[in-house]
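In this section we walk through a basic example: taking a raw amino acid sequence and producing a predicted 3D structure, encoded as discrete structure tokens. The instruction is simple. Fold the sequence below.
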Amino acid sequence: MPLFQAEGWQTYTPTVAAVTGTITTLGTCTGRWIRRGKLIICTGQIVITTNGTGATALDIGLPVAAASGSVLSGFNPSGPFPFAGSIGPGGSAATCYKPDGTYPGGSGHTLRFYASYEG
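The resulting token sequence is shown next.
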């Protein structure tokens, strides 16, 4: 494929897991992504119906593994507060925290995210 040939938007279901503990019930988790050469752009929404013992941070799955490090940014309108995640080289998920370093989820929370990275 030529470097700048665009594929269309594709859907994916982001995986979600608490770094410690267990999320009891997830609602609908949706995502979309597109590739532009080596650039991957993804966006999505995660619904935590019942948080259970989930704590520390959230791992949000990416549609394509990252070739180099990057960040994911997001907003939890249920809070409301922003959150951010670190994507490590070769990583397939972003580990996400609130700005104060605490867990960004909770029961009844909706999290919206965006990331762009080299895939």
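Looking at the output, two observations stand out. Residues 10-118 form a domain with the Immunoglobulin-like fold (CATH 2.60.40). The chain has one domain: 10-118. In the next section we compare this with other chains.
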